[in-house]
Backbone:
């Protein structure tokens, strides 16, 4: 006959776990809403920035090759790569961090397999720890403080500054960002985004309406471009960080929802076992009393 | 015929409305933009974007720099940071100006020529804050 005490303890412990997971789910849900709103608010700037960049790139197209800055056109080589990985700082979010981290790892492995030199810059503690295990010698320091708060544009600028520095010094030729694209609450997709050289397809494909070519520039195109490109880079990193933030809370919410439900199932099962054991106790006691009474 | 103005910072869309004229602080000087302005892209310096309806300035926003795209129908200001001018503080601006000036002269003495441009801009932004807040609206 199983004794009742351990069962009761077990039920209580699962119940308190359930309380925690359901609280975490609620917190994640409200943070998700905020993160989504923040990601949406950043959208207009990025869109308009892209439009302006396109106009400038079109204007620059008339100039001799080599005039365009490295951030836009690349260094012309494809030997030294930098992979920027964006993940969350905390866990308890299902496969969220692992998916993005693994996508970054696979990319690094692939590039190394092709004989490239690869460096890794990790935004987010989880991804950093994960990637450091395999690529300890290739990590670039990220001075960004372990973020305890929502992402700020200043953080993105910090990272963007490091990337620009490395490009300017010729330490890297190609920069790729790997992050979880927030497609919806249930789906975050690990995505690669080419940062340097800035995806030229996107610029070329766009319809060139007539008025775009006729912009006046003040000061000269290249001077504006020199200011605009770093900004555009920061924005892309910022967007990835916001996407990551929203995705993280969505994943956490989903994971905690699952955990709460599992805890509920477990409580149900344990309660059943507990009641059965209790009933068995009572029955056997009754049998003892009755057979005792009969014997008299 | 009105012209539409948008002021956007990386964090959010601040203003989106129709006005009669906009004055923006271009890097080469202030620009008054009326409808049918010729298409133009310009850098901004620290200063005020002023929205006019008729002859009256209806709103002022302080930007610390950025870009502006002008077409016949619209002005898009991509500000590095933007806030209503009324939120600025004169004393804080003075402090900022002092700090920036000091930093600039330190850098000059130390011969850090690569930082000079950025620091000069910082001084300019701080100076602009002081100027804007001095003429109380």
Residues:
């Amino acid at each position: 006959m199983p004794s009742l005490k351990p069962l009761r303890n077990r039920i209580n412990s699962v119940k308190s776990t359930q309380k925690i997971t359901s609280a975490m789910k609620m917190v994640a849900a409200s943070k998700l809403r905020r993160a989504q709103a923040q990601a949406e608010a950043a959208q207009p700037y990025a869109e308009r920035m892209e439009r302006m960049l396109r106009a400038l790139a079109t204007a620059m197209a008339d100039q001799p090759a080599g005039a365009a800055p490295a951030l836009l056109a690349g260094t012309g080589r494809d030997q030294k790569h930098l992979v920027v990985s964006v993940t969350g700082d905390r866990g308890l979010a299902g496969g969220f961090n692992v998916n993005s981290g693994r996508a970054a790892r696979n990319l690094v492995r692939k590039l190394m397999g092709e004989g490239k030199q690869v460096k890794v810059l990790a935004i987010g503690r989880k991804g950093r720890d994960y990637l450091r295990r395999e690529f300890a010698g290739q990590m670039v320091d990220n001075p960004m403080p372990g973020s305890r708060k929502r992402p700020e544009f200043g953080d993105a600028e910090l990272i963007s500054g490091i990337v620009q520095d490395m490009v300017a010094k010729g330490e890297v030729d190609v920069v790729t960002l790997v992050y979880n694209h927030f497609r919806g609450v249930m789906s975050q997709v690990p995505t690669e985004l080419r940062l340097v050289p800035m995806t030229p397809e996107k610029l070329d494909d766009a319809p060139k309406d007539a008025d775009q070519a006729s912009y006046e520039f003040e000061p000269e195109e290249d001077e504006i471009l020199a200011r605009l490109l770093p900004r555009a880079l920061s924005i892309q990193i910022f967007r990835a960080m916001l996407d990551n933030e929203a995705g993280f809370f969505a994943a956490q919410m989903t994971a905690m929802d699952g955990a709460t439900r599992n805890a509920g199932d477990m409580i149900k099962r344990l309660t059943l076992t507990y009641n059965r054991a209790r009933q068995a106790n009572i029955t056997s006691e009754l049998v003892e009393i009755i057979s005792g009474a009969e014997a008299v | 015929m009105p012209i539409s103005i948008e002021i956007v910072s990386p964090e959010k869309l601040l203003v989106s409305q129709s006005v009669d004229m906009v004055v923006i602080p271009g890097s080469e000087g202030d620009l008054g933009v009326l409808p049918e302005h010729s298409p133009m892209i310009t850098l901004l310096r620290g200063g005020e974007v002023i929205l006019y309806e008729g002859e009256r300035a209806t709103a002022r926003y302080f930007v610390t720099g950025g870009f502006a795209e002008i077409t016949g129908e619209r002005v898009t200001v991509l500000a590095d940071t933007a806030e209503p001018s009324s939120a600025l503080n004169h004393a804080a601006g003075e402090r900022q100006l002092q700090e920036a000036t000091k930093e600039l002269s330190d850098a000059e003495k130390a011969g850090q020529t690569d930082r000079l441009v950025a620091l000069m801009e910082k001084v300019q932004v701080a100076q602009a804050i002081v100027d804007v807040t001095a003429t109380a609206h």
